């Protein structure tokens, strides 16, 4: 992310976009003026042989509260040869270092992001109309319930300009919860199995009134 320019990928439920409540994989980009989800406009290039398409509905089973947890592992990394921003999926294996290339955002889409991203965000997001109650985020429970009961990001890594990866340090990561009465985020943890990780979420029912 840089000066209003941003690329993003993940999973979401977006009834206004898809006209249903399916959980879907998405890609997104904005150059500060134009915005685009998935392949609605020219921008994100889908790779040949991909196993997950932008806008694709994901099939159950999904995570259950207090039960088995499901996840998707994504990597966004600047290609050292082309300068494009490449998107990989890691949790289903693949031919490129046990990953599958899903596609890329050409560097020509951006002005400042053509070189590097000065800020990285891992986040949950909800939106709703001002006359509506807010939807739940994650499992619908607060982050204090932790593992097995709340949404999470885990094994979080970042990449330097030379392609080497590193664990983000706690002193350069901060939490920004703009609706603390509705949703929250845990502290930043480091574990042997889960690496850098945190939990987030909250119940439905908040109002802007």
Number of extended strands: 13
Unreliable stretches (pLDDT < 50, length at least 5) are none
Order of H and E elements: EHEEEEEEEEEEEE
Roughly how many Å is the radius of gyration? Answer: 17 Å
Choose one word for the global shape. globular
Give helix % range.
under 10%
For the biggest β-sheet, the strand order reads 4-7-6-5
Number of helices: 1
Quote the distance from N terminus to C terminus: 31 Å
**Major pleated sheet:** 4 strands, antiparallel
Structural class: mainly beta
Q: Could you report the average pLDDT, rounded to the nearest whole number? A: 91
Strand content: 25-35%
Fold and architecture overview:
The chain is an all-beta fold and 209 residues long. The chain is built from one helix and 13 strands; from the N terminus they run βαββββββββββββ. The chain has a four-stranded antiparallel beta sheet with strand order 4-7-6-5, with no helix packed on it. Strands 8, 11, 12 and 13 form a four-stranded antiparallel beta sheet that branches. A hairpin with a 6-residue loop joins β5 and β6. It is globular, with a radius of gyration of 17 Å. The two termini are 31 Å apart. The model has no long low-confidence stretch (mean pLDDT 91).
Keywords:
209 residues; mainly beta; four-stranded antiparallel β-sheet; 1 helix; globular
């Amino acid at each position: 992310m840089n000066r209003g320019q941003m690329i993003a990928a993940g999973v979401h439920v977006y009834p206004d976009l898809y006209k249903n409540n399916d959980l879907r994989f998405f890609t997104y980009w904005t150059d500060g003026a134009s915005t685009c989800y998935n392949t609605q406009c020219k921008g994100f290039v889908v790779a040949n042989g991909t196993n997950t398409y932008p806008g694709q509905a994901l099939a159950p089973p999904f995570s259950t509260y207090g039960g088995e947890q499901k996840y998707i592992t994504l990597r966004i990394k600047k290609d050292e040869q082309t300068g494009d921003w490449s998107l990989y999926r890691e949790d289903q294996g693949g031919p490129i270092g046990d990953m599958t290339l899903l596609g890329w955002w050409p560097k020509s889409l951006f002005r400042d992001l053509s070189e590097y991203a000065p800020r990285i965000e891992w986040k949950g997001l909800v939106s709703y109309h001002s006359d509506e109650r807010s939807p739940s985020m994650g499992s619908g429970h607060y982050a204090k319930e932790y593992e097995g009961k709340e949404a999470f990001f885990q094994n979080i890594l970042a990449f330097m300009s030379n392609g080497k990866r590193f664990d983000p340090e706690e002193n350069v990561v901060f939490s920004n919860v703009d609706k603390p009465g509705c949703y929250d985020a845990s502290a930043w943890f480091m574990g042997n199995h889960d690496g850098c990780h945190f939990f987030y979420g909250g119940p439905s029912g908040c109002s802007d009134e």
